[in-house]
Amino acid sequence: MTPFFLLVGRDLRLALRQGGDAAMVVAFFILTVILFPFGVGPELELLQRIASGIIWVTALLAALLSLERLFQADYEDGSLEILALLPLPLEAQVLAKCLAHWLVTGLPLTLTAPLLALLLHLEPAGYPALMLGMALGTPILSLIGAVGAALSLGARRGGVLLSLLVLPLYIPVLIFGVGAIEAEIAGFGARPHLLLLAALLLAAVPLVPFAAAAALRQALE
User: Fold this and answer.
1) One-letter-per-residue 3-state SS of 125-184
2) 189: alpha, beta or left, given left = phi > 0 and alpha = psi -120 to 50?
3) Which domain does 17 fall in, by range?
4) pLDDT value at residue 88
5) What is the pLDDT of residues 104-152, one digit of tens each?
6) 89 — alpha (psi -120 to 50), left (phi > 0) or beta?
7) For position 137, what pLDDT does the model report?
8) What pTM, to 2 d.p., does this model score?
9) Which residues of the chain register pLDDT less than 70?
């Protein structure tokens, strides 16, 4: 496991050294949520009704912003070819990069979401479901995004292709994330939706690295 965590640390150091991706993701998340009350009006009931959807859709789009750089920088400077020669399997390297991506983007989004929910006057009963849903859902966004980033690696207009590949796969996460909050507020309990998110995460962790690694090998040939 030492090479695995060394790779996670390497990606974290690179991300923090550049600083742009993490700041851009959080800034986009905050600014987009702030703009919604200006667009739909300041009516309290309306904001409460659409708050969960606004937060999840914005978080999904914010996570999408940094996915293109997940493998692109290593591909452009030749580091990806060197990493592929390491004893650590490429599948484990994909998982390490996904973990680093989540720590830089998904975790800040999860921590920022309750503060933005206050701005949108989300019902207090929905906050636990929001936090748990984001904690389970944002890693899935990073994992699924890794497949799209690997498939679009080296392609012209890779960002557009990445969005087309990934956004349809994000829909179940969006549905269950919003559904958990709405069910908790309505008094039905968020447990079924959170369990479905957990099942998606458990399925993505073993399957995504193999799919992304296969796409990376194809890009390196």
Assistant:
1) HHHHHHHHHHHHHHHHHHHHHHHHHHHCCCCCCHHHHHHHHHHHHHHHHHHHHHHHHHHH
2) left
3) 2-220
4) 81
5) 888 999 999 999 998 888 898 899 999 999 999 999 999 998 888 888 8
6) beta
7) 93
8) 0.90
9) 1, 18-21, 154-159
Structure tokens at 70: 């997940």
pLDDT the model gives residue 1: 60
C-alpha pair distances (Å), 132 with each of 97, 116, 172, 190: 23, 16, 16, 10
Measured CA distances, 81 to 18, 130, 143 (Å): 22, 40, 21
Burial of 79 (0-12, 13-18, 19+ CB in 10 A): middle
**Which contiguous run of DSSP H or E holds residue 121?**
none
Return the closest-CA partner of residue 84 out of 69, 75, 66.
75
How far, in Å, CA of 109 to CA of 103, rounded?
Answer: 10
Structural domain count of the chain:
1
b/e code 176-205 from CB counts within 10 Å (16+ = b): bbbbbbbbbbeeeebeebbebbeebbeebe
Element (H, E) at 122: none
